[in-house]
Amino acid sequence: xxxxxxxxxxxxxxxxxxxxxxxxxxxxxxxxxxxxxxxxxxxxxxxxxxxxxxxxxxxxxxxxxxxxxxxxxxxxxxxxxxxxxxxxxxxxxxxxxxxxxxxxxxxxxxxxxxxxxxxxxxxxxxxxxxxxxxxxxxxxxxxx
Length: 144
Hints:
Keywords: Membrane, Transmembrane, Transmembrane helix. This is DUF2752 domain-containing protein. The chain is mainly α. It has one domain. The chain contains six helices and no strands. It is globular and about 70 Å long.
């Protein structure tokens, strides 16, 4: 039988293992943010080109996201919103979801996260409307 010190050690190691994914994602996002600050995505071709934009000439919902991050690292919220409004608005939601994920990993909550079908449908519809709108003359102000 394991003594209490061994049980505690196993629980801590288990917690560390559970936190690898959320903390790894945070580290990767932090590194990408630093890279986008140091290597300006406003320079043509510095980070490649969106495949959809390259093939069709249309802006996808993510087009302008790299420039938005660069603007945010320079504390230019208006420039970030101008580059990709949907991305900027989604950042607080993504951060909140990351905190929930991390808290669940910390507490060893293994129950699957529940996302309601209506909420998922709303998110997909918003992305689709944004993608279509930014490629029309009326939504040109949303284009990257």
